[in-house]
Design a protein that fits this description.
The structure is a single chain. The chain has one domain. It is built from four helices and six strands, in the order H-E-E-H-E-E-H-H-E-E. The chain has about 200 residues and is α+β, with helices and mostly antiparallel strands.
């Protein structure tokens, strides 16, 4: 009789363990599918965000006036593929290199190429130009001031989260461009050169 009771108790324990195991597996499968579904939805949302439409934005580029006294803004519409500081800065510099579309004066010498852009600490942008920034530059204090601050002001006044611009030539820090403006440290905007167009 005891053996029969013990056998029945063992069978009950066995089926109880099977039931607990089955419930545990079912709960695990349920949560796995629930999370997998959430991950698929999240992946779809991320894909949709990354495939967002390009945005047309307005930027102000700063070019020289006839007397090389001031920098005058020229507004330009450009297409920004995604909201990214580095890409926005690249577009600004590339448009600045192209020169003005109005009667203003080009501040970047012919043949200059943008080599690289790096953003440091979310506040300093390091812009690396090809050697033509020096070799093709006409020289003179006014021309040098206009070249340097057309770059600095065009970047910082279009991207307010950035606070300073460091200019490199061929990946290296220069003392000056042509003997006038110290390029060894990053530069902030120069509002005294600005004149409304």
């Amino acid at each position: 009789m005891k053996k029969v009771k013990k056998s029945i108790m063992n069978k009950k324990k066995f089926w109880y363990l099977v039931l607990v195991l089955l419930i545990t597996v079912m709960v695990g499968v349920f949560f796995w599918f629930k999370n997998a579904g959430r991950e698929i939805i999240l992946a779809k949302k991320t894909h949709l965000l990354s495939c967002s439409k390009p945005k047309v934005i307005s930027i102000d580029l700063y070019f020289g006036d006839a007397n090389s006294d001031y920098l005058i803004p020229e507004s330009r519409k450009v297409t920004l593929e995604e909201e990214d500081l580095k890409k926005k800065a690249k577009i600004i510099i590339e448009e600045l290199i192209k020169g003005p579309k109005s009667n203003l004066f080009k501040t970047i010498p012919e043949g200059v190429v943008l080599r690289d852009i790096t953003i440091k600490d979310n506040s300093t942008i390091i812009i690396d130009f090809s050697p033509e920034l020096v070799s093709n530059h006409p020289g003179g204090s006014s021309a040098e001031i206009q070249t340097i601050y057309s770059i600095v002001n065009s970047i910082l006044l279009n991207i307010p989260s950035l606070k300073e611009v460091k200019i490199l030539v061929s990946g290296k820090t220069r003392e000056t461009l042509k003997g006038h403006i110290d390029l060894r440290t990053p530069l902030g905007p120069n509002y005294s050169l600005l004149k409304k167009g």
